[in-house]
Amino acid sequence: MQNMYLQTLCSVFSILYKKNFFTFNRFDKNALQNTNTRIDNLLCLTGLSERRIIKSITVEKIITFAQGFDRVDEKLGELRKLSLNYLANSLADLEVL
Asked: What are the beta bridge partners of residue 66?
């Protein structure tokens, strides 16, 4: 379980610091202990799903992935705005004691 968090954490920091990275499934899609959801969500939200290693991708192709972090920054900015709006709206509904 600890390695799963480490993989997700490394991917997060690679995205934030705009470092080329790749990731892989820790478990088979149908496995009982499948914990790929966190990394799936992260890659999908940032538009970096191609960074996931699958059997049909060669090492040469992985190494040559374009960085493409400009579009990632835009998506992260949009997600931050949505989060801040949600928090502001939620807090506005609370009564002050």
From this structure: none
| 13-69 pLDDT per residue, tens | 988 998 888 887 665 566 555 567 788 888 899 988 888 877 777 777 777 776 678
As to burial, measured by CB atoms within 10 angstroms (0-12 exposed, 13-18 middle, 19+ buried), residue 11 is buried
For the chain, the straight-line distance linking the first and the last C-alpha, in angstroms and rounded, comes to: 41
What does each C-alpha distance from 82 to 3, 14, 16, 77, 86 come to in angstroms? 30, 22, 18, 9, 6
pLDDT score of 83: 95
